[in-house]
Design brief:
The complex is a heterodimer of chains A (271) and B (329). Chain A has 271 residues and is mainly α. Helix content of chain A is 76%, strand content 0%. Chain A is globular, with a radius of gyration of 23 Å. With 329 residues, chain B is mostly helical. Chain B has a single domain, classed as MetI-like fold (Orthogonal Bundle). Helix content of chain B is 72%, strand content 1%. Chain B is built from 17 helices and two strands. Chain B is globular, with a radius of gyration of 24 Å. The chains are: A mainly alpha (271), B mainly alpha (329). At the A-B interface, helix 1, helix 2, helix 3, helix 4 and helix 5 of A face helix 1, helix 2, helix 3, helix 6 and helix 7 of B.
Chain lengths: 271, 329
């Protein structure tokens, strides 16, 4: 890298700043005094910041944050429990009809969430699962399961056969090979699948707004939505809630950058 | 929703491009066959059983219920009592004959095609830009992912406030340059433009990530050879980068199409498809009929939803066909 790369860096910073302007604006509005929100020329910088938006957001939305956390973790558990063994069956145990199953999973990702929401609604009405956290966990997991299976399959197909053979020769059965060899080696895939399953469940709006509209425990996305409907004057509180709701994404970006990269390279290193 | 992870992007393109063949590359397939004493078929089925049960109960059954909804006349009462009248394809003809149908179809076409055209062009330009590997390029590229990772309700409500007629920053900037106030979200002329703009912003990171991964697969030797031949930057892009990127471009556009087709959140949160039907797409229409009004109308909503699935599948198959054609040639 020579000094000639500096103009590109400057240009890159300009592009990034332009791209991230809405994110900056969200933070700026969240710190604005309520009286200044209705100005026709908004303040560009939070010169006189206030945390009133955050205090009113947290006082009202703390239970919703807890609900979202629970739903996210439940969704992660369900996704991993289903996807990891399926990946093992497809990639290591040569499941008959694996091609067809892979194809089905690709098609499954094409189905619009609104269609799934209607199907789940019709089923949940009968089963009394509307407005429950469990119902929402199951519905949210449908976003992550096909992705999880495809990811595990790809990674596990790259695990050296010698490793699996060695376990077999030592007398380990299929289940022991799975739990003692394949799963530990696939740790980074598990992290990647978990992080995305969590984030998608946390971010979900369509299932929440259809299957859990009047529940006792609503997730944070619905909390924000109801906030917008109820008091359109307090945009600093809405944006403060939005900032808090964005925190998992921010953490993911810092943490997962490393793990996702590790997951990609891990398969190549061991060969 | 743009649902594919950083890692899956490259991988997804493998699976998709090859028409859903097993993810293992040929080398592994050869070794696999050599595996002595491989587990019996039943063990494999046992490990896949949770997934198979899951797909049957939580995918196939909701889809089946959806088809059932669309061929019956489900009123709220029929929903609770479970005795709807059979309607055959009546709900489908109702949908096709509705005044909203041509509008929703046109809006869906505009929303999807304009969105993915801009997302792809901007994403590709940025991928080429970042491929040059200057100082801080890694950090800046990571920051570009932020819009993609935020919950859609967060980004959509932020855009809604930025585009607010009286207090939005965008109108404030326009007015400071001497323009007049534009009612972005409340005027039928601009509502669709406003939601498309927000959606382009949301999709740029996804395109950037996949196309950047595609660029990294192009061997450096090709560029080195080209630079010895004295090729200009413009020729290098149009004669080398763009043609070699074609498979990756194809999968990017297909995924973009499928994801954009089913977008509900962004439009619903910003405009609820309005004013009137001016930003109504098929997916939003389906959502509005089923959940958006006080009077849930599930049967036409399900019919519209099934229509969306058919459109997505048709484009998926056309894509696979084209892909096979290229592989042969």
């Amino acid at each position: 890298m020579t000094a000639r790369s500096w103009p590109k860096t400057v240009l890159g910073v300009v592009f990034t700043a332009f791209m991230l302007f809405p994110v900056y604006w969200m933070v700026n509005v969240s710190l604005t005094q309520t009286g200044d929100l209705r100005r026709s020329d908004p303040h560009w910088f939070p010169t006189d910041p206030t945390f009133e938006g955050y205090t009113s957001a947290l006082s009202q939305q703390l239970p919703a944050l807890g609900t979202s956390l629970g739903i996210g973790l439940g969704c992660v558990a369900l996704t991993v429990v289903i996807a990891a063994p399926a990946g093992y069956a497809l990639a290591v145990l040569n499941l008959r009809g694996g091609r067809a199953l892979n194809f089905l999973l690709l098609v499954a990702q094409m189905i619009p969430a609104v269609v799934m929401a209607m199907g789940f609604y019709a089923i949940y009405v009968r089963l009394g699962l509307l407005n429950t956290v469990w119902g929402l966990i199951v519905a949210d997991s449908t976003i992550a399961v096909p992705f999880g299976v495809l990811l595990y399959t790809t990674f596990m197909a790259g695990i050296p056969r010698d490793l699996v053979h060695a376990a077999r020769i030592d007398g380990a059965g299929a289940w022991r090979t799975f739990t003692r060899v394949v799963l530990p080696v696939s740790r980074n895939s598990t992290l990647t699948v978990s992080l995305f399953a969590f984030l998608w469940a946390w971010s979900d709006f369509i299932f929440a707004s259809t299957l859990n509209r009047s529940g006792e425990f609503v997730p944070i996305t619905l909390g924000i939505y109801q906030y917008i409907g109820n008091n359109t004057t307090q945009w600093n509180a809405i944006m403060a809630t939005a900032v808090v709701a964005s925190l998992p994404a921010a953490i993911l970006l810092v943490v997962a950058q490393r793990y996702v990269a590790a997951g990609v390279t891990a398969g190549a290193v061991k060969d | 929703m743009t649902t594919t992870s950083v890692e899956a992007t490259g991988r997804a393109s493998d699976g998709g491009a090859a028409g859903g063949k097993p993810a293992a590359p040929g080398r592994d397939a050869r070794r696999r066959r050599a595996l002595p004493g491989s587990a019996s078929r039943w063990t494999a089925i046992g490990f896949a059983a949770p997934l198979l049960a899951y797909l049957a109960v939580f995918y196939a059954y909701p889809l089946w219920r959806n088809i059932e909804l669309s061929v019956h006349d489900y009123t709220v009462r029929a929903f609770v009592q479970g005795n709807p009248a059979f309607a055959g394809f009546e709900k489908y003809t109702e949908v096709f004959a509705s005044d909203s149908f041509p509008t929703a179809l046109l809006n869906t076409a505009l929303f999807t095609l304009v969105s993915i055209a801009f997302q792809y062009a901007i994403g590709l330009a940025l991928a080429v830009f970042f491929h040059a590997n200057f100082r801080l390029s890694g950090v800046l590229r990571a920051l570009f992912l932020v819009p993609w990772l935020l919950p859609l309700i967060v980004s959509s409500s932020t855009w809604a406030w930025m585009l607010n007629s009286d207090n939005g920053i965008i109108n404030s900037v326009i007015e400071s340059f001497g323009g007049t106030q534009i009612n972005w979200l409340t005027s039928p002329d601009t509502a669709l433009i406003a939601v498309i703009t927000a959606n382009i912003w949301l999709g740029i990171p996804f395109n950037l990530v996949i196309l950047y991964a595609g660029l990294q697969q192009i061997p450096d030797e090709i560029y080195e050879a080209a630079s010895l031949d004295g090729v200009t930057a413009r020729q290098r892009f149009w004669r080398i980068t763009f043609p070699l990127l074609r498979p990756v471009s194809a999968i990017t556009l297909l995924l973009g199409f499928v994801y954009t087709l089913k977008v509900v959140d962004v439009i619903w949160i910003m405009t609820t498809g309005g004013p009137g039907d001016s930003s109504l797409t098929l997916a939003v229409w389906s959502y509005r009929e089923a959940f958006g009004t006080g009077q849930p109308d599930f049967s036409p909503a399900a019919a519209i939803g099934n229509l969306l699935i058919v459109i997505a599948l048709v484009f998926g198959f056309v894509h696979l066909r084209m892909q096979r054609g290229w592989e042969k040639s």
